Amino acid sequence: MHRDICMDVLCRKRNFSNFEIEPLCNGTDEIGVLTDSFNDMVRQISGLLKEQYKLGYEIKDLEFQVLQSQINPHFLYNTLDMIYWLGIDNEAPDVAEAAKELGRFYMLSLGHGETIVSLKNELDHVAAYVNVQNMRFEDHFKLTIDVPEELYDYKIIKIILQPLVENAILHGIREKSSESGEITIKAWLEDGVITISIEDDGIGMPEEKLGTLLTRGEKNSGYGVWNIHERIQLSYGTQYGLRYTSRLYIGTTVSITFPALL
C-alpha cells in the first residue's frame, strides 16, 4: 500500500490555471478505489469549468453583437441633444422633437452601462423607438402597451423587446399594402415566470419561415431573433426564451419568457 501511495505522488501532474489534472495511478486496494473516485470527480469538475467558460464567452460575444448594432450610442446621443437645442433656438419644433425622441432612444439603449434593466426601461425603449418610426413614416404604427404597473420593476436583459418590435414593423407591418398597422405588448406573471407577448397585425409568415427564426445566422430578421433567444437561455436556462406563432396575412405573435427577478 505504501508503494501505491508513493507511485500516486510521482504520477501527479496539476495545472491549476485550467484545472487539468492527469489521472492518478491507481492500485487494486482501498487506495485504488479512492483514486478512481478522485479521478472521476476531477473529470466532472473540469467539464463543468469548461462549460462555464464556454457559456460566459458566448454571452459576451452576443453582448458585443448588440453593442455593435447600437453604432456608438454615446456619440449619437450627445449629437442629438445638440440638434434638439438647435431646433428649439431656430423655432423648428419638428426637428427638435425628432432629435429629442431619438436621443431618448439611445439614452435608454445605454442603460447606464448596465446589462440588466427594469421591464419599465425596456417598455420605454420600445415606445421611443416607435415614436421615431412614426415621425419617419407619418404615424403608420399604433403601439398599445398593456402591462400591469406591478411588473415594471422586474428585471430583464437589456435590448430584448425593441429588436422584436423592429422586426414586427419592418418584416410584418410594412410588408402590407397599407404599410400601417398595430402592435400590442402584454405581460403577465404566473408561477414565478414572466411572459411578454408582442402581437402585430402584419403580413404574417409561412410555417417554414417560423422554423428558421430561432436558427443562428438567420439573415432576414434584423440582427437575429436567435441572438435574443440565445441570450435569454444562456442567462436563465433553456426552459426560457422565445416562441413564435403566425398566420399568413393575419399577423405574428412572439412570446418571451424569463424568471421573475427583482
Structure description:
This protein has about 260 residues and is α+β, with helices and mostly antiparallel strands. It is built from 8 helices and 9 strands. Helix 3 runs antiparallel to helix 4 and helix 4 (about 95-110) runs antiparallel to helix 5. The longest helix is centred in the first third of the chain and has 40 residues, at about 30-70. It starts with a helix and ends with a strand.
Alpha-beta content class = alpha+beta
Q: What oligomeric state best describes the polypeptide chains here?
A: single chain
Taking all residues together, what is the mean pLDDT? 80
- Helical proportion, percent range: 40-55%
The geometry reads as globular
* Range of strand content: 15-25%
The N- and C-terminal alpha carbons lie at a distance of 56 Å
Largest sheet: 5 strands, mixed
Tally of DSSP helical segments:
8
List keywords for this structure.
single chain, about 260 residues, alpha+beta, five-stranded mixed sheet, two-stranded antiparallel sheet, disordered N terminus
Summarize this, please?
By secondary structure, the chain is of the alpha+beta class. Helices cover 50% and strands 19% of the residues. The protein starts with a helix and ends with a strand.
Sequence-ordered SSE layout with sheet pairings:
Layout: H1 2-11, E1 14-15, E2 20-21, H2 30-69, H3 73-89, H4 93-110, E3 116-118, H5 119-136, E4 141-146, E5 155-157, H6 161-171, E6 181-190, E7 193-200, H7 207-210, H8 225-236, E8 241-247, E9 251-259
Parallel strand pairs: 4-6
Antiparallel strand pairs: 1-2, 3-5, 6-7, 7-9, 8-9
